[in-house]
Amino acid sequence: GENVEQHPSTLSVQEGDSAVIKCTYSDSASNYFPWYKQELGKRPQLIIDIRSNVGEKKDQRIAVTLNKTAKHFSLHITETQPEDSAVYFCAARRSGNTPLVFGKGTRLSVIA
Amino acid sequence: GAGVSQSPSNKVTEKGKDVELRCDPISGHTALYWYRQSLGQGLEFLIYFQGNSAPDKSGLPSDRFSAERTGGSVSTLTIQRTQQEDSAVYLCASSPRPSGGQETQYFGPGTRLLVL
């Protein structure tokens, strides 16, 4: 089955700097890669996703890149703000509505 | 509209007791998922319902865990003879009918279970 590895487990950046979180996956049939943000005590919220027919997707300060050959994808947050502090999870799955396989999460701290 | 809701929000129980956790998905969503999140860990898949199909139970950690979904809507996750290692946040998610693409999963607030 699918296995998703996520790095780093913790990340501290100065406000205004960029943050990058990387994930690798094992199942070459996976074609959907969402990223969720989870604030302390809250539910995971989808912030961006990418499908395998594109290599990059951007939404304001957030971007995701996908390299299908290498089986890895990354989340990029630019101009970080204190409210970006949270745990971020990557995930992967095959087509349809099958369950997501999650990475173990990255705790991002943005220092003002 | 209303999002995914779960109840109770918190549950404290004694080892050996049974517990029931409830999930109300977004109205009209055909897929429903249960995940477990242990302290400081990622989300672990438990069970998945899609419409009227047989559920995918491949993630259930033991036969003490079971789930049902009545009328294609509300779901109940039951843990029998709870153990301390069952302590975790149990998250439910739902997604709409597949339309040829990838459907977003929307999460509920979770039930925080503590087994003493």
Provide an overview of this structure.
The complex is a heterodimer of chains A (112) and B (116). Chain A is built from no helices and 11 strands. Chain A has 112 residues and is mainly beta. In chain A, strands 2, 4, 5, 9, 10 and 11 form a 6-stranded mixed sheet that branches. A 5-stranded antiparallel sheet of chain A has the order 1-3-8-7-6, with no helix packed on it. In chain A, a hairpin with a 2-residue loop joins strand 6 (56-59) and strand 7 (62-67). The model of chain A has no long low-confidence stretch (mean pLDDT 94). With 116 residues, chain B is mostly beta strands. Chain B has strands at residues 5-7, 10-13, 19-24, 31-37, 43-50, 65-69, 75-79, 88-95, 106-107, 111-115. In chain B, strand 4 and strand 5 form a beta hairpin. The mean pLDDT of chain B is 92. The chains are: A mainly beta (112), B mainly beta (116). Chain A binds chain B through residues 6, 31-32, 34, 36, 42-46, 49, 51, 89, 91, 93, 95-105, and chain B through 4, 30-31, 33, 35, 40-45, 48, 50, 56, 59, 91, 95, 98, 101-110.
Unreliable segments of chain B (pLDDT under 50, ≥5 consecutive)?
Answer: none
First CA to last CA of chain B: what distance?
37 Å
Per DSSP, the total helix count of chain B is 0
Number of extended strands of chain A: 11
Order of helices and strands of chain B: EEEEEEEEEE
Largest sheet of chain B: 6 strands, mixed
Strand percentage of chain B, roughly? Answer: over 45%
Q: What is the arithmetic mean of pLDDT of chain A?
A: 94
Question: Regions of chain A with pLDDT < 50 over 5+ consecutive residues?
Answer: none
In percent, how helical is the residue content of chain B?
A: under 10%
- Count of separate DSSP helical elements of chain A: 0
The overall pLDDT of chain B, averaged over residues, is: 92
- Broad shape of chain A: globular
Rg of chain A (CA only)? 13 Å
Which structural class best describes the helix and strand composition of chain A? mainly beta
Rg from Cα of chain B: 14 Å
What does the oligomeric state look like here?
A: heterodimer
Strand content of chain A: over 45%
Please report the two chains with the greatest interface, counting residues with C-beta closer than 8 angstroms to the partner's C-beta. A-B, 26 and 28 residues
